[in-house]
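Lecture 7 notes: from sequence to structure.

We start with a single chain of 242 residues. Read the sequence below before looking at the structure.
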Amino acid sequence: MAAIGGVEEFMQHISKVCDIESVFDGLFESHLKVMVGGFGRGGTPFSLIDALCRKHPLYHGLTIIKNDGNEPGLGVDLLFQKQMVTKVISTHIGLNPDLIARMNRGDIAVELHPQGIFAEKIRAAGAGIPAFLSDVGIDTVIANDREKIEFNGSTWLLETALPGDVALLCADVADELGNCVWRGSNRNMSVVMGTACPRVLVEAKKIVAPGEIAPEDVHLPALFVSRVVQAGPRAHMNGGRQ
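Now the structure, written as tokens:
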């Protein structure tokens, strides 16, 4: 029994599970580049975003890096409402007319990228690649004021890597050590974002004991994850529960 107790004590010591109200402590500050997983509602870390909103007197000047701007009154739009964000780097903001209005007023700067380029810029950051060449958008306004390089007889746009400071992700399942699994399209940008930031905060719909996730099923290894919290009910889905 002493040996079993020792293992349990060891596992508690290395567990990354914490309370959501303390998940940002020591890992978050103003003026950070914050990567947020999710595509629309799928895979968006609603609980972490809500918790961050409750900290709005403490944090400001954030740059949000997310595939989309969510919808008015939902997800990262709550951060816009709290005036915590000065810039958004995204691929699609058309579902959020409030964000578009803020952009047009000059309240929030918006930088848009083609979706594949957006994903590759983040992946490159996680892989330690500083830049890559692409011809996507080279004959459009995207290429305006961008560095171009002649290579192998063709003209290319130089795309720089896009790293972040902190990633906020929502996994379908995570173990107490931080190994994460996503189902279907919930994975979206989450895995590459988890590799592109030195601090990664994950809310999980289900938290399991170490060993319950087969190694070959892990999408984001615990090595990349800083803290894990239990995801709360989704008030916008199914009468308050997801």
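The two ends are 39 Å apart (CA to CA). Keep this in mind for problem set 3.
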